[in-house]
Every structure is written in C-alpha cells, then in structure tokens.
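User: I'm preparing a small set of examples for a lab meeting where we compare how different chains pack in three dimensions. I only have the primary sequence for this one, and I'd like the structure in token form so I can line it up with the others. Please keep the answer compact; I'll paste it straight into my notes.
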Amino acid sequence: MSASTSKKSKEKEQQEIVATFQKLREEQKAVASKSAELQIEQKSHELVIETLKEVEKDRKCFRMIGGVLVERTVGEVLPALEQNRDQITRLIESLQSQIVTKGKEINDFREKHNIRFQGENETSQKSNGEQSTQAKSSGVLVERSA
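Assistant: Understood. Below is the structure token output for the 146-residue chain.
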C-alpha cells in the first residue's frame, strides 16, 4: 500500500510541476501577445502622426475618444497622439523586460525540475547516429526521472 501511495503522490507532484510550467509559459505568451498588439497600435500612431505633420495645424480632424468621435484641429490632436505614442513605447519596453524576466524564470524552473521537451536532444545519453534519426520537438512535456 505505501508503495502505491508513494507512486500516486509522486505522479501528483509531477502533474503539479507540469501544470506550473505550462502556467508560466501561458503567462509569457499573454505578455508577448499584448506587446505585439501594442506594437501594432504604435505603428498606427506613427502613421497618423506622420500624415498629420504634413497637414495645416488649423485643419479640422476627428478623433475617437472613449468610443465617441470628437471634432478637433490637427494642432490639438497631434501633441496628444505623440504623447500616446510615447506612452505606448514605454509600455512596450516594460512588457519586453517582463518577457525576458519570465523567460529566465521558465528556464530556471525547467532546470530545477529537470523538464525536457519530448524529442529534445539528450547528448549525454544518445550517440550521434541516434540523434540524427530523432523526431522533431512536438511541444509535449516529459519529465525524466532522476
């Protein structure tokens, strides 16, 4: 009975480790996704700013603010757009540093718990001939027993 209980608790612990690892990866993906979304928004701001710089400052333009379309002049809108672009740039830089930090956390977690991806090279256990026939990584997590 104790061997069976020990085996079940070890399996449960391994499942928790894998779940934690997957959660870390999902968090990193979410931050990367938000960063990509903001980069698109930043490029959109850049395009509008470049277009408005060529237009007269007193020309009428429309801007969406909180779902409401408001009438302004180019002279009023341009500084606000530049400020928004700068804020987006700072936010992207912050998200990029979060991605790097999360990546380090994931790598540390992998090393601590000896997590390997299925198909990942194990040079210490395989010869060069076996490595050439090894399948590509399929994204499935497998933990090696120590």
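A couple of notes for your slides: Strands lie at 60-65, 68-73, 115-117, 141-143. The radius of gyration is 25 Å.

User: Perfect, thanks.
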